[in-house]
Sequence to fold (199 residues):
Amino acid sequence: MSFFPASLEVLIDKLASLPGVGTKSAQRLAFHILSLPQGEAEAIAEALLHARRSVKRCGVCQNLTDTEVCPICGNERRDRGTICVVSDPKGVLAIERAREYSGVYHVLHGVISPMNRIGPDDLTLRELVERVSRGGVEEVIMATNPDTEGETTARYTSRLLAPFGVKITRLAYGIPVGASLEFADDATLTRALEGRQEY
Fold:
């Protein structure tokens, strides 16, 4: 037996279907939305619909944009000879936050994951190969997550790009700042040792 009106139950179910939102969080969000003045609730709904209608993939790097070419690809000061490959748009945000990278990106929109029935054809690998095949690219940086799926995707992509003779690198990773060695797993320690630098 439901304690809520059917329309509220539908709202809670839809919110709970979002990544990282459980049933209790969905209930809190739904109650908050219902407590908003009519105009604010409608503004949220309109913003959602507007974003869904207007946001698309950049014609160059596949990042999200509301224009044909995203601001990064449209910036003439960016180094087009270096492409950083990330699994999703959040990867672009993370690297841009560091303010150390001046190249361009390619967003795969996922990683190879047989368990989730995601194969190479489900990613934007064809577009990446086309970009590299046109020439002018000197280095491709693989910046997928350091997990099994991210590693699989990085290796597969590297093999696809090998015939073009570009330098293919992988982001260094290992022990995070402030972490204790005793709590690091074997894979992290291995990567930290492989990526060591002269002090």
